[in-house]
Amino acid sequence: MTRLVRRSRPFTPVLLPVRIIVFGLAFLSFACLLGQFYGFWTMQFFGCWVLPPATVALAIIAYRTRHERDGTGNPHTWIVQGAIGGVLAAFAYDLFRLPFVLQGAPLFKVFPRFGELLLGASEPTWLVQFLGWAYHFSNGATLGIMFLAMVVQPSPRALFWGAVAWALFIEAMLLLTPYTAFFGLPLDGRFLFLTLSAHMIFGLVLGFYCRGRIAVHDGL
Predict the structure, then answer these.
(1) N or C: which terminal CB in the chain sees fewer CB atoms within 10 Å?
(2) Within 13 Å of residue 216, how many CA atoms lie on the same side as its CB?
(3) Other C-beta atoms within 10 Å of 75: how many?
């Protein structure tokens, strides 16, 4: 009797609940800000009482699955490699925007505002800036985690272009929220070009990282 042997297990029904849990825990970083927009909670409350335990939960999941096979079927990979790729992509995103900021574009003005909302105060300035930038890179890390938690049929092309599509999708969804009005950003052609092109850079860097670091572990 011939036995059917599968070469890999990128997705099984057993992993579906884990994917949903990891995606949901990572999404809470964005939920922190979205709730502030719509009056569901404050960023200060959410940042103190929800994000820390969610981060600990992600760390526990990553630790408990650290000895499993690397690849897109392993929660350790989604969390660790997704976070690294997301933070690197966020650095590239900011470096792309920096010349425009130096020319007067208000693209970095949201970071100290993030810090004020998280701290519930505008002083001390160093802590406001630290919290604001930390929250920004937290969002970058969680974008990477959420992306890899969704990849069920990995290939170099899917990892690369999927990351680009994911970054642009997130920006499109963000523009449908009160984001620009809340932070007093001009929703004009120049702003749209800069923010969409910056998210394209984010997606390209995340995709390049995932293709190089993850696809090989799936035997692709």
Answers:
(1) N
(2) 4
(3) 23
Using DSSP's 3-state secondary structure scheme, residue 213 falls into helix
- What letter does residue 176 receive in the DSSP assignment? T
Looking at residue 213, its pLDDT comes to: 86
In the chain, % of residues over pLDDT 90: 84
Q: Which structure tokens are listed for 7?
A: 């070469």
End-to-end, the C-alpha distance of the chain in Å comes to 29
Say whether pLDDT at 8 is over 50: no
* Token couple for 83: 């976070």
Does pLDDT of 121 surpass 80? yes
Describe the chain by its helix, strand, coil percentages, rounded to 5.
75, 0, 25
How many other C-beta atoms lie within 10 A of the C-beta of residue 187? 11
> Are the beta carbons of 69 and 217 closer than 8 angstroms?
yes
By the 8 A CB rule, do 41 and 35 touch?
Answer: yes
CA-CA-CA-CA torsion sign (16, 208, 133, 166): negative
d(CA 27, CA 11): 21
> Are 122 and 116 contacting, i.e. CB atoms less than 8 angstroms apart?
yes
**Measured distance CA(21)–CA(116) in Å, rounded:** 29
Give the per-residue pLDDT at 73: 86
pLDDT surpassing 50 at residue 165: yes
pLDDT tens for each residue of 172-197: 999 999 999 999 999 999 999 999 99
How many Cβ atoms from other residues are within 10 Å of residue 61's Cβ?
18
pTM (2 decimals)? Answer: 0.90
